[in-house]
């Protein structure tokens, strides 16, 4: 049995002369949370739609839960998905909407209330959908995606519209699902959230995969940043000049010099600044966040 929930090989989708996705290759192991990230128009939705059998690829192939995407009927009963925002009957309650979907999908009706409670809507299941906030609508969409008790859950921006408390609830829900063996493939623009929960990442830019692998490996391979604050702000340009003359890319952010460099260059920088008559009030080495790493990576691939 395959240990992969998703396996994509040279997957391509063209619309006329435009390539929405170009020669994509990536794998998502079973029982993990995989973040799917990229700017708007990078090919994320196109990829998800192909994985769900909604559109056919132009070239290449992919397998979902061991089955070819050309035969979605073989795997879709084991997949839950929420893409491009949930759609429900406004005049029906949340519980009634889920019961309709359960009837259409042949799922047990007794799953409805436990799922409402699981996504934090246990006490609002009787309220009409049209009275729900955007965050509540998102959570009802996740509950609907969980109706088939899926092996693979595909979510497109599941935290859209949620307040910090709601985002935390969804984060814990995804962790809980993964701990029970469900694979979660989640598209999100909140890279800080993905950094906390995603074990694997697939990054797209302009229809091409620019990174696929573990989150830990990406962050470990990122260049550290020296954050330098001189005693006098007037010395900032001189600090930048010292860094750049020694081959280190540097920028000024919030009154500090951000210098891309290995941590062991910090001592030499301190010494060079002292010799130039510059007193440093702070010098700290930090690891870039996932968001900073992503932007650095997309800048490099765009050069």
Automatic annotation (TrEMBL):
<feature type="domain" description="ABC transporter">
    <location>
        <begin position="6"/>
        <end position="231"/>
    </location>
</feature>
<dbReference type="GO" id="GO:0016887">
    <property type="term" value="F:ATP hydrolysis activity"/>
</dbReference>
<keyword id="KW-0813">Transport</keyword>
<dbReference type="InterPro" id="IPR017871">
    <property type="entry name" value="ABC_transporter-like_CS"/>
</dbReference>
<dbReference type="Pfam" id="PF00005">
    <property type="entry name" value="ABC_tran"/>
</dbReference>
<keyword id="KW-0547">Nucleotide-binding</keyword>
<protein>
    <submittedName>
        <fullName>Unannotated protein</fullName>
    </submittedName>
</protein>
<dbReference type="InterPro" id="IPR003593">
    <property type="entry name" value="AAA+_ATPase"/>
</dbReference>
<comment type="similarity">
    <text>Belongs to the ABC transporter superfamily.</text>
</comment>
<keyword id="KW-0067">ATP-binding</keyword>
<dbReference type="InterPro" id="IPR003439">
    <property type="entry name" value="ABC_transporter-like_ATP-bd"/>
</dbReference>
<dbReference type="InterPro" id="IPR027417">
    <property type="entry name" value="P-loop_NTPase"/>
</dbReference>
<dbReference type="GO" id="GO:0005524">
    <property type="term" value="F:ATP binding"/>
</dbReference>
